[in-house]
């Protein structure tokens, strides 16, 4: 995710608690989606769709922060 901002992401994860929380939530959602899609967790297609929408919202918010700092 955002390879062009790799160094800034590393920096913000340690210096910006809000960004770090967004990053962690995004990764947690990504793992949950993978678990549902591989049948490790139970979930409906609607749940997966909603999780993906939330993951995208978090990604958009992180991108806005990266653009502001970059």
Can you describe what's shown?
With 70 residues, the chain is an all-alpha fold. 80% of the residues lie in helices and 0% in strands. It contains three helices and no strands. It has helices at 6-15, 17-37, 45-69. The radius of gyration is 13 Å and the shape is elongated. The mean pLDDT is 97.
Brief synopsis:
The chain is mainly α and about 70 residues long.
Please render the helix and strand layout as text.
Elements: H1 6-15, H2 17-37, H3 45-69
Helix pairs in contact: 1-2, 2-3
Low-confidence stretches: none
Tally of alpha and pi helices: 3
Q: Compute the gyration radius: what is it?
A: 13 Å
Q: Report the sheet-strand fraction.
A: under 5%
Keywords:
mainly alpha; single chain; 70 residues; elongated
């Amino acid at each position: 995710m955002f390879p062009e901002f790799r160094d800034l992401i590393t920096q913000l994860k340690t210096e910006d608690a809000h960004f770090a929380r967004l990053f962690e939530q995004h990764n947690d959602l990504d793992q949950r989606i993978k678990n549902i899609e591989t049948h490790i967790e139970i979930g409906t297609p609607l749940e997966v769709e909603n999780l993906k929408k939330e993951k995208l919202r978090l990604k958009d918010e992180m991108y806005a922060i990266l653009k502001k700092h970059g």
